[in-house]
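Risk register update: the risk of archive-format incompatibility is retired. Evidence:
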Amino acid sequence: MLSLTVILFLACLSVYDIREKSPPLWLLLVGGAVLGGLSLLENEPVEVLTGCLPGMVLLLVAFALPKSLGTGDGMTILAVGAAWGLGDCCQWLLLGFVFAALAGLWKRFVRKESGKEQIALIPFLLLAAIGECLI
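Archived output:
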């Protein structure tokens, strides 16, 4: 149930991330509250808070280096981390980064693009979440 909710949340955010290059704040807040609430029903509060750690770190990176990572990405990882816990979140996040890196390499070397444009991360996180659920 929780994994399906995470995938639906990421699917909605992916549409906005691809179209508008940034997911809306209201969707991040509502989705984060729903995922956090559902997670608290199934897990201990300590597990939920430790699952938020990767998102907190990436939010700090987004504020420190604004061109490297969007705050929407950090908030998404914060919400999903609360739902899935630290171990699953780190595994999922690493897989999403690998997919995004492969797409960046494809754009750079196969399609010969300049590499200056940003790649939307959330669709790759959705792909990784689907992979996590199937494994």
